[in-house]
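Re: beginner question about structure tokens

> Can someone show what the tokenized structure looks like for a real chain? I only ever see the sequence side.

Sure, here's an example I had lying around. Input first:
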Amino acid sequence: MGLTNEIGIMQGRLSPRIDGKIQAYPASTWQKEFEIAQEIGYAAIEWIVEKPVETNALMTDSGKVEIKKAIASTGVRIDYVCADIFMQQPLVRMTEEIKSQNNNYLLQILKNAKEVGAIGVEIPFVDNSSIKNDKEKQEFIDAMQDAFKLAKDLDIKISLETDLSPIAFKELLELIDLDFIQANYDIGNSASLGFDPEEELDAYGQRILNVHVKDRKLGGTTVPLGTGSADIQCVFQKLNEIGYAGGITMQAARGENDIDIAKEQLSYTLEIIEHL
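And the corresponding structure tokens:
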């Protein structure tokens, strides 16, 4: 059995919604989330960095001290940092000024993630930040050179989440050709795009660092687990077959009571894993 029962949850899912958004950094309640995660049984929280970057607790010295205290007192880890800032200002198609700012942000996120014990930093290339052609693929690789060097020096991984087809994503990883550059696999996003999970996991399953558990309708939005187009059972079966030993992070639909929903989602996922 490759899969463990160690499951994390995306930051903000254990706090009241901010401005009605499904995902956001909970600036005033993030400490409380560590306590709730511990009570429910989550092993980790996936930290979010978005605008404003400068006031995010992970990006300040005092904040990092508080984060380490929260980890020490609850035993709830930060295994992954989700760099949502690069959804807001992508690493491609930007002005030179923004490119420079992005580079600085990314290097700082890598350093600070390592400092609080994270295994990897996730960079999204979906929706607003999609890589649309070979020119942008090269632009992205050029923009990442400093980050690639730093990740190697720090011994921290960078995982990419893209909306590329299975073979195109595999080819991108092979083009980069660095073992510490891996994939983030989002079950719901892949279902929304109509990808075949078996084809995806055959193509690059061995390169996956973390799996986001969510459900979406084909071409549609996030829906409660088991009600969309994602074959979550199939995904976990395939992950088990390939000996997957990476992370699992709940990023599923929100509800009326997010804490109750988080409990249900954890039970749902653990039940699938236990019956493999």
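Each token stands for a local structural state, so reading them left to right follows the chain. The domain at 8-274 is CATH 3.20.20.150 (TIM Barrel).
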